[in-house]
Amino acid sequence: MPTPSDDLRWMAAAARLAARARPLSRPNPAVGALLVKNGHVIARGWTQPGGRPHAEAHALGEAGSAASGATLYVTLEPCAHRSERGPACADITSEAGLERVVIGQHDPDPRTAGDGVERLRQAGIKVDLLDDDASRGSLAGYLMTKREGRPFVTLKLAMSLDGCIARADGESQWITGEAARAHVHARRARQDAILVGGGTWRSDKPRLDVRLPGLAERSPKRVLLSRGVAPDGVTVFNDPAQISRLEGVQYLYVEGGAGAAASFLAADLVDRIEIYRAPIVIGEGLHAISDIGLGSLPEAHGRWRMTDRRQLGSDEFAAYQRIREEND
Q1: Residue 75, marked binder
Q2: Which residues does the annotation say bind NADP(+) (predicted)?
Q3: What is the pTM of this model?
């Protein structure tokens, strides 16, 4: 019998598979699935481009009759609603002869919300709902849109050792090296939309695309935080709270400048901060973030935890997750 630690290990593997689906699975969530039998993976799946087939259907289709008696690890509760695009995954899974289904996250979509689990149990399948960190992290954008009505927001900052994003005269290309810039483009390729402030748009004229071989088609939607007129092909908002109007966007990447970064932080709409720090000192320059209205130093503590850190050439990358009450 699999132990709880085995379940977490297999679910973490399913969550890593789910990463392959971003962002091509939109408007559906990026889900990962593994079929395990006698301690071995017999099939795997992730949500396919355009949202179909779903991860479970993908894995079960690969396994065929070998799925009988296996355990399915899936990061999100199998959908229970029928669609013109395909049958409900709860029905497909119920008919596969599985011994057990382990689910990483409950689906907050009211069309499924518990019905997927109940349908499996009515079919005589043992179901365990883990609510584990790996699945939650892999579904962060989907869960945020369903529970809070807005995208999951990542704020990206590229700065010097002394916290500057440019010289005082505005010169900013390039603070970080090639490895860090390539990493940024890889991160862009996983987002649904990318946002900059009006000042950055006017001074830098950024392309906001993905410039990595084979990934150009994954360039995200472009969004501008400004009170000006929308340029062609760009969505304009004048308040960070308006990101809830972005249709089909689960992941929003905010690249600055200092005013846009401060606006999102002041509104407590940043869920993750990614910092690229170059080993240079600028001195008198433009700071990465302007005033966020912090009332006292104690208010700044206990809000962020480091989740990733690595070296990218001569630059250092670090990621911090917002600590929110529901995740404590």
Answers
A1: no
A2: 158, 174, 200, 204, 257-263
A3: 0.91
